[in-house]
Write a structure and sequence with these properties.
By secondary structure, the chain is α/β, with parallel strands linked by helices. The chain is built from 14 helices and 15 strands. Helix content is 42%, strand content 17%. The termini are far apart.
Length: 405
């Protein structure tokens, strides 16, 4: 029972007692517990050996209010630390605490330090396990064990809910976040141009912390296990491109170039992107999408992948499942809605598709969007003839070549 609860009960039974006795009561309860109270849990300090133990954990960075291009960045940091040497590695994670995030961050850390410890400890990945059924949890455990085996590490986990067992990484979270907060204050702004700039910012902070422990890190590197010849690829999946020039992965619909229809792609998952391979050839990188809930699909669409077919069937735009995601900028979507009201469905679809085609073929997406925005502000429909002339020449037209002998 808390001392304040005892105090409130005393005051309820004896309202005339001075409320100033609370601090005296708390001191006397604390003294009584020291003499007669129950035993408390003891934390045992451990002797750490170089190259033996590495720790992984995730920490939420939402309280720093970091923005990218003015938009609040909902993210975490994957944090790895070698206990004896103090080597640290941090990786910006856009999704939740998942196996993919752990696998990517852990492997980046091991290849950065140039070796692997004999034991790797995590906090049971409680956030990743929470919503999984028994079979999925078993599968996740098997994949994690295989990842550790690939690097010759013994996988261990601290007891769930006992944070001090991972204290050597938990305390480092606070130091790292404090360093990031100070660096943001010195920088004068929490806004970054893009995600790559923010990741570079985090890398610089971690690198400065590692330089202070350079001598110990070099000593520990000599006793780390050698790395395997290649990183593990167990976070790869196979996806078949359908006739819609797309594939669906983790309840997210992705478009790809139509020349890949019918092919089976190797998809390597990361927390913020997908790398696509056909055989051993790397094709492209797509931004990773996430479904807002388990009932609906998200869409990651690039209009360049389908515009050539859409030009032949412009009316398909009207009821297209991912129509809003097809438009690369709001100006294109708003112009289409204005055209629907002004000229009807058929003409609106034809002109909207022509605008998208012009943006792609004549490499003027941003400039064309600015002109459309000006037209929307003035309540003016796009003048297709003037736009064609503005962004001439048409790449489909043959130039007139005069040869003088």
């Amino acid at each position: 029972m808390r001392a304040v609860a005892i105090f409130e009960e005393i005051r309820r039974r004896h309202p005339d007692i001075d409320p100033g006795i609370r601090r005296t009561l708390e001191r006397r309860v604390r003294s009584w517990r020291a003499l007669h109270g129950p035993n408390q849990e003891v934390i045992f300090r451990q002797v750490h050996e170089p190259g033996r133990l590495g720790l992984s954990d995730f920490t939420d960075m939402g309280d720093l209010a970091v923005t990218v291009a003015g938009v609040l960045l909902d993210h975490r940091l994957y944090h790895f630390r070698l206990i004896w040497s103090g080597f640290e590695h941090a990786h910006v994670i856009l999704g939740g605490e998942s196996y993919v995030a752990l696998a990517e961050g852990l492997q980046n850390a091991l290849w950065a330090v140039g070796g692997a410890p004999t034991e790797h400890r995590s906090d049971s990945l409680s956030a990743a396990f929470r919503n999984l059924d028994a079979d999925a949890r078993t599968d996740l455990t098997t994949r994690y064990d295989a990842l550790c085996e690939h690097y010759g590490m013994v996988p261990t986990r601290n007891n769930r809910g006992v944070a001090h067992e991972n204290g050597s990484i938990e305390s480092s979270h606070g130091h790292l976040k404090a360093a990031v907060r100070d660096a943001l204050l010195l920088r004068g702004t929490c806004d970054f141009d893009d995600l790559a700039a923010y990741r570079h910012f985090i890398d610089e902070i971690v690198a400065r912390k590692n330089r202070r422990n350079g001598a110990r890190i070099d000593s520990a590197r000599a006793v780390l296990q050698l790395l395997p010849q290649a990183r593990t690829g167990d976070y790869e999946v196979i996806a078949t491109v359908t006739s819609t020039s797309s594939f669906t992965l983790r309840k997210v619909f992705y478009t790809v170039p139509s020349r890949l229809i019918g092919h089976r792609l190797r998809v390597r998952l990361y927390d913020d992107r997908l790398d696509l391979f056909i055989g051993g050839t790397r094709l492209m990188t797509l931004p990773r999408g996430r479904s807002a809930d388990h009932a609906t699909h998200a869409h990651v669409v690039d209009y360049r992948h389908v515009i050539h077919s859409l030009r032949r069937k412009p009316m398909a735009l009207l009821k297209l499942v991912y129509r809003n995601q097809l438009f690369p900028r709001d100006a294109y979507r708003q112009t289409f809605e204005l055209l629907l009201e002004a000229v009807g469905e058929r003409a609106a679809c034809r002109q909207a598709v022509e605008l998208l085609s012009m943006a792609h073929e004549r490499a003027c997406e941003a400039e064309l969007a600015e002109l459309l925005t000006e037209g929307l502000a003035a309540g003016r429909l796009p003048d297709m003839a003037a736009l064609r002339l503005r962004f001439a020449p048409d790449p489909a037209a043959l130039p007139e070549v005069v040869v003088e002998l």
